[in-house]
Write the C-alpha cells for this entry.
Amino acid sequence: MFMMKILKDDRGGQVMMGLLLVVMIAVPVLNLVVPESSFLHLSTYSVTLLGKYLTYALLAISVDLVWGYLGILSLGHGAFFALGGYAMGMYLMRQIGDRGVYGNPELPDFMVFLDYTELPWFWQGFDMFWFAAIMIVLVPGVLAFVFGWLAFRSRVTGVYLSIITQALTYALMLAFFRNEMGFGGNNGLTDFKELLGFDLTADSTRIALFIASALALALGYLASRAIVKSKLGRVAVAIRDAEDRTRFIGYRVEHVKLAIFTFSAALAGIAGALYVPQVGIINPGEFSPLNSIELVIWVAVGGRGTLYGAVAGAVLVNYAKTYFTGAFPEIWLFALGALFVLSTLYLPKGLVGILNRRRALS
Amino acid sequence: MLLSSFSAALHTASADEGRLEQIQNLLLSKSFNDKSQAVSLLAESTHSQSTVILEALMEGELYYRKSDKQFLLTKKHDGDYLIHDALTGEDLGSVKKRTIKKIGTNNAIRKQIRAVLASRELNNPDADIRYQAVSEMLGSPDVGLIPQLEKRLAVEDNKKVRQHIELLLAISQLDTENKDDRLLAIETVSGSIEPVVRSKLVSIQASDPDADVRKAAKDALNSISVRLQFFSFLETLFFGLSLGSVLVLAAIGLAITFGVMGVINMAHGELIMLGAYTTYVIQQALPNMIGVSVLLAIPAAFIVAGLTGIVIERTVIRHLYGRPLETLLATFGISLILQQAVRSIFSPLNRSVITPDWMSGSLEINSVLSLTYNRLYIILFCLLVFLVLNMVLKKTSLGLQVRAVTQNRAMARAMGVRSAWVDAMTFGLGSGIAGVAGVALSQLTNVGPNLGQSYIVDSFMVVVFGGVGNLAGTLVSGLSLGVINQYLEPWAGAVLAKILILIFIILFIQKRPRGLFPQKGRSAEG
C-alpha cells in the first residue's frame, strides 16, 4: 500500500521495481533449479557478479540523492561505502575465529603477524552481528554528520565542497594503508569464512546475499523516493536550484543538507556492507578518489535526479566494465574516459533523459 | 736493461736519474729501513708520478714485473691485474698474478707515506686542495701530522684553511697534561660543529680529572648542540621549501586554469605527466647530451602540454563554461584517456629520466649542513616560473586581456577582446606551465602513467588553501604546506603528516572558505 503510494507518478521506479522483482525470483531459480548443463543455467559466479552490481546500484542511489536532489557533488562517497564495508569486514574477520593461518582464537591473522598482544579497543564488539550492523550505519553516518556539519555550517559549496570530499577520502585511504591503524593495512581484511553461521562459499549463501542486496536496493530506493517526495525533498530541490533564495525564505538550508547527506552516507555504508561478503575482500583501495569519482559517472550516465537512472547507470557501466576489462583491457580506460566526456557534453540528463524525451515526443 | 727502461721514460728529468735508480734499488730491498729511506727520497722528488707512486705503495698496489723489474701500478680485475707503468702512467694491459710481485710495506712506512702525502696536499698551491686536505684530517685527526700543520699555519694565508688548521691543533691540545692548555683548547673548539670535536668533548666531559675542564667541556657541548639544532632547523626548512616548490610548480598551472578561469581541470596531473614524458622522449632522442636535453625539454614540454590543453579547451571545456561540476567530470574523463594513451604508447612501467651532472651533487655549507643541487635548482626554478608567469599576466597584452575577461567577460567583449581566443590561450598557458612542472618532477620521481594522479589532490589543496584566483597566494600556500609537512614528518611519520595536513586544510576551508588570500571586490563574487 505504502509502496504504491510512493511509486505513484514514478514510472521509472515502477519499471525498476518490477524488474528487480523478476530478477529476485529468476536468478535463484536459474541458479538452483535449472541444471548446470542447460544454457539457461546461471553460474554462482554470475550471481555474485549481479549481487555486486546491485550493491553498486544502492551506492549510486545514495550519490544521486545528494547530487541530483541537493546539488552536492560528493567525490567522497566511496569513503562511506568503504567504511560500511570495513565494519562488515571486521565482523567477518571475528567470525573466522581460530581457523586463520595462525590459529589464534582471539586475534585476526594480520594482528598476530604484526605482533598485537590484544584486540584493539575499536575491534571490541565486532564479534556480534547486531553490533556490526549498527556500526555499518553509524560509522559512515557519524562521519558524514560531522563533516557535513562543519562544511555546510560555513557554507562551503560547489566545487570547494567536491574537492574537500575528495580530500576526505584521500586522507582516509592514506590512513587505512597504515599498518598502525589496525585495519590490516595494505592487504585489508580478507579470507572470510562465514556470515551468521552460513558458509560464504556455499551457493545458497551467495543466493541469500544476492536476495539481501536486491531487497536492500528496493528498500533503499523506496526510502530515498519517500524522502524526495516529502517536504524535505522539495526543499532540497529548492536548495539545489537556488540556495540563497531558499535560505532567505526562511528554510534552514544547513539542516536539510545535513539530514540528506547523513542519510545518504548511511545508505552507502549499507551498500558497502553487502558488497564485502560477496567479493570477499575489503582493502584501502576502496577509498581511492578514483573509485568515488567513477561512481559519480554511473549516476551521470544513467541520469541524475531520478534515482532509477542511477540504478540503471550503475548496472550498465559496471556490466560494460566487466565486459571490457575481460575482453579488451586496453580499451576500458579509453571507453570510461570517453563516457565521462560524452555523457557530460551530450547527455546532461543521462540515458534516462533520452528515453523520457522520446516518450514525451511520441 | 732496468736502467735503460728508466732513462727512456725519464730522459727529460736527467738530473733525477741517479736518484731514481737509487730509490728503485731501495724499494726492491728486503729491508724496511731501505724502503723508508726510499719514501723519504720520493718525498723530496719533484717527479710528476711521485705522488701516485706513494699512494700506490701505501695501498699495496705498487708491484714490479719479475722479468724486467719494471715498476707497475696495479688494479685487481676479474682475477687478473690491470697494470700501468708506474713512472709514465702508460696503460700496459692486464697480466696474471704470478708474473708480478708486490712491494711490501709495514705500518711505520704507511704512516710515513701518509705524512708525506698530507704535507704535499697541505703545501699544494691550490687553496681548495689544501682546504679539502684539512677537512679530511678533521674526519680522523692524526697526532703525527701536528708538526706539518704547525709549519703550514705559519705561512698559510687562506682564512678557511687557517681556521681548520687552528681547529686541528686545538683538538690535539685537548689531550695535553696542562689544565690551562686544555681549557684554552676547549674554548677554541667550542664554536665548531665537527663530529670529531663533539666526541672528544663528550669523553672529556665524562672522564677528565679536572672539574673545571669537565664543566668547560659541558658548556661547549651545550653551545654546540644549540648550533646543531639551528642547522638541522635550517636543513628541514630547506627540505620543506624544496617540497613546497614542487607543490607550487604542480599547482601554479592549476592556479591559472582553476583560479583565473574557474575551470576545474582534473586532467591537470596528466598534463604534468605529459611534460615528464616529453623530457623522457627528448632524452632518448639526444642520449649524448643529457645536460642540454633537460633544458631543451622545458620549452618542448611547455608546447606539448600547452597544445594539448588548447585542444582540450576547444573540444570539451568550451561547451561547459559556467557548469563547474560537469567540467570536473569531463576533464576527469580526459585524464583517464591521457593516462591510458601513455600506458599504451610507453608501456605501463615507469621510465627513468637521467639527472644531468650539473644537477647532482650537493653544496656543502659545513660538516652538518649540505644542500643538494637538485633541490636547490627546484626552488630556484619554481621562483623563476612564478616570476615569469606573473610578468606574463601583468605586463603582456595577453595578460591584460586575461584579467579583463576574468573580471567582466561581457565588458571585455564589448571592448573588442576576443574572449574565446583568450580562454583558449589562458588554458594553454596554464597547461603549458603544468608541462614545465613535469620536467622538474621528472628529475625527482619516476616517470610513469600514474605520475599525475598523485599530484592532483595536492595541487587542488594548494590552490584552495592559497585562495582561488591568486597566484601569490598559491606560492605562499605551496611553500608553507611543504615546510609544515617537513616539520611534521619527524614526529608523525610521512603518511600521518600528509593526513594531518589534509585534515588541517579541510578544517581551514571551513573557517576561511576562500583561502588564505581571498579576492576582494567584484571579482570575489560568483
Remarks:
- The mean pLDDT of chain A is 85.
- The CA atoms of residues 33 and 198 of chain A lie 20 Å apart.
- Chain A has 15 helices and four strands.
- The interface with chain B takes residues 73, 147, 150-151, 153-156, 158-160, 162-164, 166-168, 170-171, 174-175, 177-178, 289-290, 293, 296-297, 300, 330, 333-334, 336-341, 343-345, 348 of chain A (CB under 8 Å).
